[in-house]
Structure formats: C-alpha cells, structure tokens
Design brief:
This protein is 39% helix and 20% strand. The protein is an alpha/beta fold. It is found in: Cytoplasm.
Amino acid sequence: MPKLIGSTQGLKPSQINRLNNLYRRRLPPAEVLLPEQARALAALSHEIGRQIGLVVDRKGEVRQVAVGGPDSLPHIDASRMRHGRARLAGVALVHTALGPSGLSQADQTALPQRRWDYLAVLNVDDQGLPGLVRVAHLLPQPEDGQDVRLLRPFMAGQTPHDMAALVQSLEDEFARLAPPLDVRAQAAAILVSVTTGSRQLAEEHMDELAELARSAGLEVRGRVVQRRQRLDPRTLMGPGRLAEVLLLALRQGASVVVFDQDLSPGQAHNLALLTDSDIKVIDRTQLILDIFAQRAATREGKLQVEMAQLRYLMPRLTSRDDGLSRLTGGIGGRGPGETRLEIDRRRVRERLHRLEKDLQEVGKQRQRRRDQRKRGGAPVLSIVGYTNAGKSTLLNTLTGSSVLSEDRLFATLDPTTRRLRFPQEREVIVTDTVGFIRDLPKELRQAFAATLEELAQADLLLHVADASNPMVEEQIAAVERTLDELDLTQAPTILVLNKIDKADPEAVTALVNRHQGWPVSALDPPSLRPLLAAIEGMAFGQNAGAV
C-alpha cells in the first residue's frame, strides 16, 4: 500500500518531503492531535492549497498520507486495514479543511463506508493557522434519529474525551448488539433492491432473494428496498442510502450485501471502491452461481458451473492495484510485457476454451445415451418448472426413486433419468432437469445448454408449478418464457399444480380453470392417479380426459 497518495503534481520537492515526514510523527491515540502537530499540518495544507488526510492506527502511527484538492480528498484504499465482524476499521481519518467549514456530508457518508474509528477535521484559517477540531463517530444504535455523533469542537490538545477509550467502547458495543450467527449459516447478509417499479413487486422479489440467500447458506439480517425515478448509473442507489445500508450491515454483524438487481461491471467496481471493508457486495447472479457451485456433484455439473462463473467474471476483471501490473517479460524481452490484468484475461479465455471442449465431449456422450433410449422405443417425459416447485419430489413419487429433494431453491442441479412403468408392460423415460428462475442468468443458460438439450428430445413436458406460492402466476410465466427463448415449445405440455395440500382450495380451483392444470400433491400418491392417466394417454396416444 503506497504511503503517499493523491494529487501531488505541481508540488515542490521540499513540500513532498514534508508530506513524507508526516509518517515520522506519531499522533497521540487519546488526543487526536497535539498543538504543534496541528500547526505543522495546517501550515502545510495552507501552503499547498489542498486538503491533507492522515490515516492513523490505534497506536497513533500514520499509515497513509492523502493529498486532495481544495475541497476533497482522493479515494483512500482501506483494503489492508483491520476488519472483522461487527468491528470498526482499526484506523481513523484526520484531515484538514481550508476555511471555517465543519464536517461535510461526504465526511459523514464516508464514516459507514470506511468504518473509520472516527473522522476528525482540522480547520485551517486564511493565515494558515489551525482552528477547531471537529470529530464524528458512528453510533451502535441511533440516538434522536441520528446515526452519527458530532463531538463538541475543541482546539488541538484539548479533546473532551479519551478517544482511544471511546473507540474501544464503541467497538465493544457494536459487537455486543450484533446478533450471534446461526450455526447453520456461513455468513450474515443484508438484501437490497433498487427499483423504478412498484414497491409491492420489489418486496415479492425480495422474498425470493431471501430464499436464494438461505439456499446459499446466508442468514438474512435485513432488507432494504428503495424506489427511485432513475437508477444511479454508478452504484444503483445514492451514496447516502448506500451508507445507510453499510451501517445496517455493521450493526447487524453482516458481511455480505446482496443486490436483487444485476450489477454491471462498472457498478460492481464502484461499489467495491466505496466499501473498502470486510463487506462483500454481490448481485443476484453471483448468488445463484454460488449456489450452483455448492450443489454441483457430477463432473458435468462442475464443468458447467465453472464455465458460468468464468463467463460472469470475464468482463469484471479489473486491475485493483497498480502494484499488480508488474513486468513479466523475460530477460531481453521487448516492451513492458503483459500486465497482470492481461494475464488474468488470457488465462480465463484459455480455461473457457478447455471447458467448452470438455462439455462438447460430455454432450456427445449424453447424445449417445439419448440415441440408445430412442432405440428402446420408450417415450421421453421431461419434468420442468420453477426451482423448488417440487420436481424432484414428484419424480421420486412417480418412479419410486430416492433423488435428493429439499425445501430450498436449487436443491438439485444434475439431470436425473428414471423409468416410469404403466400397466400393460409400458413405460416412459422420465428426466428431471435443473429448475428455472425468473431472469435466468444468461451465463447459466449458456453453460447448461448441453443439459437443456434433454428437453429438446422430450416427447412430453411436465411443467410443475407450486400452487401454494403467492407468485405462482409469475413463476408459470417465467418458465414458459424460458421455454420459448430456448425454442422448446414444440412438445405437448402438461401443467402440474403441485403442493395443493399447502394451497388455498379456492386459489387452486381458479388456477385449474385458468390454466387447465392438474392439481396434485407430490407427497400424496393417490392424488397423482388422474395425472398418471393423463400422462399415459398423451404418451401413448390415448384420450387423456378432463380434469
């Protein structure tokens, strides 16, 4: 981490030397600044006409010096600062302000973004003399509707509090108030949705995002929905609201912020710059990819998930540190050689190419198995549907199998094939594929193309929908839309309205009338008899009858 950052162009060598000398001056942890330190800092800031910021650890040692403009500081990299669950950064920011102004809105916004122990502003008058010091720190709980406390202004050396003791007490209180993490969860998360649509629809989508988070092993600690007339092209939400989200994460002991909207590479980069702490900011696609990575069990599934992850990563590769752009050419090599970023991209392209070849081979093997099934003459029935609609449970009940089935999104990923026997020595081949979801990430759709080819070979599709889900209509539409995008609407389809044991009877009746679906409970074999008759009739050319 460079010790001197920011706008140093145009400064004299003597001024740069004085800036570097700031590292040799240890600040008192309890008092923020001594009078002689304040005078030297104010004089230098006035002389160069720019703000100067000092990043100071709890021992009083200066970790970084930042030189900004007349009214602002540059971005300060906090990636190597001490972080932990429900803990402050372990460093404070002390900076000058030319003129009598106090803490700016940018200062107060930076507090939760950087998790500074505290933020102090030293006013510099028009003679270059130090004025009042103004200090702000985060509050473990709101007080009078405020999240930040402003201490009484004081002159250097006359602080009204022992700042070292105050910071320690604040951190202890943050840790005490943060709920303990559930032993079944890997981390705690805050869910965020920024929308230009209706709040009700956003809340419904947040319910699904919460289920995705649970499937990924996250414990949801808070939800934030913001309606805007226009999304912020840089960060989706404004800096003030983002600061509120990060403060909520600090108070709740959350280490992950999940956006329901997909973040562009630029937005992801900007959010990473604004959250230099232990907070990880991800979007819905990343969350789904993480679930797939956890659940993939077969070689094919692992290859598909890795391909999807690399496709997602490729446009988001960026150089996060100039120090990574090292020269890698050998002795006598011409030019600067390849930067780390170029090497990363090349390696990703090479790995993608290899994965594509491996998946092509897997696809050929799957095609040979399909050809063998065709020669057997048995019709092929493919089960499709929204994730967690009960497809695997239905497969188990129909065929007497024991495929993994759980009440969570994307419990199973790998396609499964079983035989369903009817009387008169007739049978159909039943295949269960990965569940769909609204706005299925294109990276997943491309990676799972070989698996979804199973659907193109089906003689009959069994579309399973969760009749007990309040968003069942939207889920049915999402599956139909995905099938249409995949050009898989040629095969006849039976709509199965599952989980009627959990659904309102009147709602089920309305769904049956609206969609001509078959109401069943996959956990109740007798309820499947009419459906079995319909399947047999459509698979072997008989009259399926009516519901």
